[in-house]
Amino acid sequence: MSELKYLSGFGNEFSSEDPRCPGSLPEGQNNPQVCPYGLYAEQLSGSAFTCPRPTNKRSWLYRILPSVRHKPYTAMHCGNLTENWDEVEPDPNQLRWMPFTIPKSSEKKVDFVTVKHNPSFTQSSGFTWCFNNSDGDFLIVPQQGEILITTEFGKMMVEPNEICVIQQGMRFSVNVFGETRGYVLEVYGAHFELPDLGPIGANGLANPRDFLTPVAWYEDREVATGYTVINKYQGKLFSSQQSFSPFNVVAWHGNYTPYKYNLDNFMVINCVAFDHADPSIFTVLTAKSSRPGVAMADFVIFPPRWGVADHTFRPPYYHRNCMSEFMGLIKGHYEAKEEGFQPGGGTLHSTMTPHGPDRDCFEKSSTALLKPERVADGTMAFMFESSFSMAVTKWGLETCQRLDKSYYQCWEPLRKHFDPNWRPSKQ
Ligand SMILES: O=C(O)Cc1cc(O)ccc1O
Ligand SMILES: [Fe+2]
To answer: So where does Fe cation get bound (predicted)?
Structure first.
């Protein structure tokens, strides 16, 4: 699997040619009268044409046939996908889901719309359908099972502890190699960026060179039975037929690409004196809103690190947050809750909903001898933190049957320690 090659850098002006067609990328211009190898030129715009340079995103794709050569889109069944946020009454409770079940192959099949099992990945993509999201960008967090993502830009192998971003409009298909599960965050109206580093300086957190973009790969494949392009548009699914694989891009250049990132490369910053630093220090990617400092969504991780803070309650503090916090666990356990929150599960702490360590964590960390210690070794929890208030779907609250109704009980044993006679000890 490691045969796949990548280009390194975040949001760079990349260029790539499938080595089978040297010289396929036009030189010096985007729209030659006739493109090398008889290819069609097609621009994919990820920003308004007139966006300022730092946010201006587009790529030029040189392909065997242009994307427009397809039959009309028709509405298709949307399964559990919904854009109806009023399906169920709002619920401000702390919500926790047990690991989402992976259907056995004997059961009714579920898919990523486009998931396909295990074809060869160096030859044909093997697909007869692909997906694209016209509404926004996907951040995909595999939790179990590696996934091979074939895109118009090339192929990416993404394993648990890596994440990838497929931006608005990019066509892709997903191969799985066994039981596979993960999380997806969708953002509208902004693309993910690296957070500013402020006083941290020029280096640190997720470093740009660790982001990897696929290299051009094409197949010139006619599909007599029809190739289906599934398009998520205004929250609904539409499909259209064409007679060829859309993974027919021989060369491309631009700064609007899919990419992946290995979370082990995150340069962790943490408190080395006292108190608990806010989790914004663990932000991998941010999708900014128009309000300065307020993200539509941040992708935050809780990676292995040293905990050394003196005279400090080291785990996450009790809090209420104007932001919504959805958390998932890729592996291991989460320090604020050793029990109950399991890999492949999730929690949602909505706008201003109180949460924090469970009773065990509180008692243990209030009395622990504060020596330097490894925190979260072998684990990887993450948070999708958003300034939007969240609605949960009917599927999430009811149909999936994974909601842990006992979640609130992890805080019930919290005891009162208040002692009105307490006095500061004399030094
Ligand atoms: O709620 C959580 O577990 C996430 C979280 C972690 C932390 O260290 C500080 C604040 C916060 O919301
Ligand atoms: Fe929190």
So the answer is: 319, 325, 355
